[in-house]
């Protein structure tokens, strides 16, 4: 009888322990997935930021070019007078 009680206690303790381990592992997996999604979002934002920086650099070059053309047109007729 005592042996059966000990076996029953060990069996239920093992099951309880396994359930707690499963709960902890499930929670950890959810946190890892959330962090991974967050990291993916950050990487996507960084890619968007890089693309925006490239576009701004191109627009700056175009603006500089347009300013030089306007300066040449304005100085051209003044020099001819």
Which labels suit this protein?
mainly alpha; 81 residues; 98% helix; rod-shaped; 1 helix
Topology at a glance:
Layout: H1 2-80
In short:
The chain is mostly helical and 81 residues long. It has 1 helix and no strands. Helices cover 98% and strands 0% of the residues.
**SS class:** mainly alpha
Number of helices: 1
Strand content: under 5%
Radius of gyration: 35 Å
Average pLDDT, rounded to a whole number, is 90
The biggest sheet amounts to:
none
Give the uncertain stretches in residue-range form.
Answer: none
> What percent of the residues sit in helical stretches (DSSP H or I)?
over 70%
Summarize the helix and strand pattern as letters: H
User: What spatial form do the alpha-carbon principal axes imply?
Assistant: rod-shaped
Task: Describe this structure as you would to a colleague.
The protein is mostly helical and 81 residues long. The chain is built from one helix and no strands. It has one helix at 2-80. The longest helix is centred in the middle third of the chain and has 79 residues, at 2-80. The chain starts with a helix and ends with a helix.
């Amino acid at each position: 009888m005592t042996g059966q009680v000990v076996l029953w206690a060990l069996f239920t303790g093992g099951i309880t322990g396994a359930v707690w381990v499963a709960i902890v592992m499930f929670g950890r997996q959810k946190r890892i997935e959330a962090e991974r999604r967050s990291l993916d979002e950050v990487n996507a934002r960084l890619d968007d930021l890089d693309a925006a920086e490239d576009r701004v650099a191109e627009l700056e070059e175009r603006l500089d070019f347009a300013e030089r053309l306007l300066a040449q047109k304005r100085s051209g007729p003044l020099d001819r007078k």
